[in-house]
Structure formats: structure tokens, C-alpha cells
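REQUEST FORM: STRUCTURE PREDICTION
Request ID: SP-0412
Submitted by: Lab K.M.
Chain count: 1
Length (residues): 140
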Amino acid sequence: MDSNFKRTLMLENYERPFHKGLLDDNTYISLNKNNSSCIDSFNIQLKMEDGKIKDIRFDGEACAIATSSMSISISKLIGKTKEEALNIIENYEKMIDEKDYNKDILEELNAYEDIYKQPSRKKCATLGIEGIKDLINKEK
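STATUS: Completed
RESULT:
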């Protein structure tokens, strides 16, 4: 993935994040995920329906990497089954940790493939998707 495209993708998803804003709807499960070493903090909502992720919402204050990775993750995970979503998340986490992963299923999430070069930013890049994984695993 071209570095200019990565930068543009991240900036667009930071400035206009997908599904930002929480809903007052008790059919969603929710949690707060924050980074203890900085200001990054997300309130995340997830709605499963018929075995698939129907919706994911978030709000909070976070850096460009955390916000953009959350936005791209949400757009990638909506419509997936629990198993499909957990597979994507596992591959994303492997990429961030410099382990073997399936690049093809990550699509736009590959924009974060160089985060390992900035170890202090790994938590930023995984904060949102870890919260989503926690919510998926809470679902029965």
C-alpha cells in the first residue's frame, strides 16, 4: 500500500470517522476502552443480530491513529459473523505484533502495517479493535 494513500486514508477516517456517535438504544452492549498512557478513550457500542454484527458505534477523544483505526475497523467488521470478525481482528493484531498474518482479509487495515516501527503507537492502533473484540466475546 502506497504511503501517501495510507496517510490520506488515515486522515480522512480521523477527520470524518465512520459511525462516530453513540445511540440511546438498549439493544446494544457497550464498554469503555482507554489507554492508560495517554488521553485515548472510547465508549463503544455493538449490536449483533442473527449471528452477525449489525452495528458498531463509538465516541470519545483519541489521537489520529486510534480514531482512524477505529473507524476503518468498524467499516470492515459490520456485517461479519462473530467468527469472521474475530478472524479479522486476530490477523490485525498479528500484523501489529509483526507476526505472520493474512494481508488479503485486512484490506484498508493494512494501512497500519508499519506501526511496529513506532512501538509507542501500537496501543493507539489496537485500542478500538480490542474494545470491539471484548464486546464480540461478551455476546452469546
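NOTES: The mean pLDDT is 95.
Reviewed by: T.R.
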